[in-house]
Write a structure and sequence with these properties.
The structure is a single chain. The protein is of the alpha+beta class and 597 residues long. Helix content is 53%, strand content 18%. The strands form 6 sheets. Strands 7-8-9-10 form a 4-stranded antiparallel sheet, with no helix packed on it. Strands 11-12-13-14 form a 4-stranded antiparallel sheet, with no helix packed on it. A hairpin with a 2-residue loop joins β8 (465-472) and β9. α4 (56-72) packs antiparallel against α5 and α7 (129-176) packs antiparallel against α9. The longest helix has 48 residues, at 129-176. The chain is rod-shaped and about 165 Å long.
């Protein structure tokens, strides 16, 4: 059989090559057709039909040829060709149906051998017209069904692809409007929510169309397609979601726009909208507290502490590491903290306690510096740019960005005035802390050799006492003054010292060590010169009681320099350790200043 088919094919080709006009013999062509070599036979069959319009068998095989072509056509990429082939197949099947008769079957039975059947009654092989017509009817029906299903398949395929590209376009439009996903949330409005809903609905329609496509694809049967959806999650707005998809490949990766859109809508409705309401409420609460300061002149520090809303701050900072509203809140709170401290300090502002006053001023300046830092950063911020993220907050709380900008500038101007005033006051106060006042005398509580002062401190123990020498008519006297918050000494004493050794010109060589009894009731000072007089070191040792003042002051000449003092409270004895060049010696004085032998 194969050899016959090959021979027939070669014969047909040879005949065609010899003369295009020479007639093709159907008996040769039928061998190819019976062997289902439709693709090879097609061009010759078309030529044959062009010259022979009275051969029903040729119509039949032409219909089968087109039917086979329609079955092999790609249902997606060659849809129009497939439909045309189906239409051609039906056309030729109809011609065959109308021209094949009993007479035709008997006369040309060799052309219809594919319908030859054994008659169960007689056992003979034969061809029945009913079998031929049933086959043609079946072929016409299946061809028409394939055509309609492919048309439906193509409709759903194009629809799903078109809807997905539409969803992709909607997503790109959303993505292009925002620098980050956080800015999308912060700038969200009704228009954005509408776009997100449109995106979700379009994606839903895409999925519905694709489901219909898959259902029809299954009905059609074997094709080259078996697409399986592989939904890709959109995690980063600027990295995901913009790429297109190839709907013809089996591993069909598409972006899950609905999941992202619904998640975004949920975040806006359940997080952003309540967060906006809380920001407005918080700002209103701050304004009420500020009004109370102005009206009642009371400290509101405790109210500010109670109003703290760290949850609001932390939630807002999830979308913006440095939110503009938080900076506004902190500016208002810093201003109120400063005003509250000023109000709280007012009752004792005229107190003679300089250190208390300095403490208050230091606290107030710290408040001012915080406010300065906040306002300085705020005035540099781009409200036009940041205002987009907080349009709702600005419009509801301040009306316009210009009003908010004016508030920031006004607060900064207030801060600058207060800062200058407090710095001047603080400097004056800090200078006052450097002097102890005893009547008309001002005793320096600092070491400064360049100034020609009457009082020359040798020891200054911060906020405790100072010991030194004062000169009148070039004659030296010792002094002891306690250092109090008011800078008016409550313990004071003046005492004589060795005049010849403690002159002003020897001041750089004069030193002092001191000791305070643990209860703070007894003070000792040892003033000495590092320069020897008559081969000994001149020393003035003084004992002072907190309650009674000077107890005694005695002059001594020591072999070695005094380096350390020790007091025995039970006996009242003072031990003085002296040392020089590796030698050391202990000198003991009784409670009256007499040396113990």
């Amino acid at each position: 059989m194969y050899l016959k088919v090959a021979f027939a094919f070669l014969l047909i080709i040879g005949t065609s090559s010899y003369s295009y006009c020479q007639k093709i013999k159907y008996k040769d062509l039928i061998l190819l057709l019976d062997a289902r070599q439709f693709e090879k036979a097609e061009p010759f069959l078309k030529r044959y039909l062009k010259d022979n319009s009275d051969n029903p068998s040729a119509y039949l095989f032409m219909g089968i040829t087109y039917q086979e072509k329609a079955l092999s056509n790609d249902v997606l990429t060659h849809t129009e060709i497939l439909i045309a082939n189906c239409d051609s197949a039906v056309l030729f099947f109809d011609k065959a149906y109308n021209t094949i008769t009993e007479k035709e079957l008997k006369r040309n039975d060799e052309n219809y051998q594919m319908y030859s059947r054994r008659d169960l009654r007689t056992g003979d092989f034969g061809i029945k017209l009913s079998d031929v017509r049933l086959d043609l009817e079946t072929r016409v029906k299946s061809t028409k069904e394939r055509k309609e299903r492919v048309k439906e398949l193509n409709k759903f395929f194009v629809e799903s692809k078109t809807l997905y590209f539409k969803a992709n376009s909607v997503f790109k439009e959303i993505e292009s409007k925002y620098e980050t996903e956080n800015s999308l949330y912060l700038q969200s409005d009704e228009a954005l929510v509408a776009s997100l809903n449109k995106l979700a609905q379009t994606f839903d329609s895409t999925m519905s169309a694709f489901t219909n496509y898959k259902s029809v694809l299954k009905q059609i049967g074997k094709t080259n397609y078996n697409q399986q959806l592989n939904l890709q999650e959109i995690i980063h707005l600027k990295k995901h979601g913009t790429g297109i998809a190839d709907f013809t490949i089996d591993d069909l990766k598409i972006w899950d726009y609905k999941r992202w859109a619904k998640s975004a809508i949920e975040t806006i409705e359940k997080v952003i909208d309540p967060l906006r309401d809380r920001m407005i409420s918080y700002d209103i609460a701050l304004n009420k507290i500020r009004d109370r300061i102005k009206k009642d002149s009371v400290s509101v520090v405790s109210e500010l502490i109670q109003l703290e809303d760290r949850l609001l701050y932390s939630q807002l900072q999830k979308f913006d590491p440095d939110p503009l509203p938080i900076a506004i809140f902190e500016m208002k709170k810093a201003e109120m903290k400063y005003q509250s401290d000023v109000i709280s300090h007012k009752p004792t502002r005229d107190s003679s306690n300089i250190m208390l006053k300095l403490s208050y001023l230091t606290n107030e300046l710290a408040d001012i510096h915080i406010l300065d830092s906040i306002t300085s950063k705020l005035v540099k911020r781009d409200l036009d740019k940041e205002g987009g993220n907080y349009h709702h907050f600005i419009s509801k709380a301040y009306g316009t960005k210009a009003v908010l900008s004016s508030l920031i500038k006004t607060t900064q101007d207030f801060m600058n005035r207060e800062k200058l005033r407090k710095e001047i006051e603080w400097e004056a106060t800090i200078q006052a802390t450097k002097w102890a006042i005893n009547g008309s005398d001002s005793i320096p509580l600092f070491f400064e050799q360049t100034r020609d002062l009457n009082f020359k401190p040798l020891v200054i123990v911060d906020e405790k006492f100072t010991i030194g020498l004062t000169y009148k008519d070039s004659l030296a006297s010792g002094y002891f003054y306690s250092i109090t918050p008011t800078r008016i000494p409550d313990v004071k004493a003046t005492f004589t010292v060795e005049q010849s050794s403690f002159t002003k010109r020897n001041l750089p060589l004069i030193k002092c060590i001191s000791l305070v009894e643990p209860s703070g009731q007894v003070f000792f000072s040892v003033i000495f010169s590092e320069s020897k007089t008559e081969d000994k070191f001149p020393v003035t040792i003084t004992k002072i009681y907190k309650s009674d003042g000077l107890a005694w002051s005695n002059n001594y000449r020591l072999d070695l320099l005094p380096t350390e003092l020790t007091y025995a409270a039970d006996s009242g004895e003072l031990s003085i350790k002296t040392s020089a060049g590796g030698d050391s010696k202990i000198i003991v004085l009784d409670k009256n200043g007499k040396q113990v032998q």
